[in-house]
Design a protein that fits this description.
This protein is α+β, with helices and mostly antiparallel strands. The protein has five helices and five strands. It has helices spanning 2-18, 20-23, 70-74, 78-83, 116-123, and strands spanning 28-34, 47-51, 57-64, 87-94, 104-113. Strands 1-2-3-5-4 form a five-stranded mixed β-barrel. Strand 2 and strand 3 (57-64) form a beta hairpin. The relative contact order is 0.22.
Length: 125
């Protein structure tokens, strides 16, 4: 009986670790900025995301703000500040849907205003 439970737990742990959607949900701080690409339909890879933890820039990222608290989403200037790279946000890069769809920065919280150096680093790519 104990061996069956242990086997079930090991199988569940391996399944979770192998799942690309669940494995990619680690949160980090990002600066999102427009890359100049103009799209007319979703998904739109019109931005880059600077991962402040690693310093790497993820190119061609779509933005998803549905996980933001309602008060942040409803603020009149949130979208403009996000696209201009003026905010540091907490979130995760997730690969959803079809393999040819762009990665998505799922924003869960606004941390602070970004600095000029952070905005320049994001926009330089």
């Amino acid at each position: 009986m104990l061996n069956r439970r242990l086997a079930s737990l090991v199988l569940a742990a391996c399944s979770i670790a192998a799942s690309p959607t669940l494995a990619a949900t680690e949160s980090s701080d990002y600066v999102y900025c427009s890359n100049g690409l103009v799209c007319f339909r979703a998904p739109c890879p019109s931005g880059n995301a600077l991962d402040l933890g690693t310093g790497k820039v993820v190119k061609g990222v779509a933005l998803n703000t549905t996980e933001l608290p309602l008060q942040d989403r409803a603020a009149p200037d949130t979208s403009d500040k996000l696209h201009a790279g003026k905010l540091v946000v907490r979130g995760s890069i997730q690969h959803r849907g079809e393999p040819n769809e762009p990665p998505m920065l799922v924003v869960t919280r606004i941390e602070r205003a970004s600095g000029k150096a952070e905005r320049r680093r994001c926009a330089a790519h």
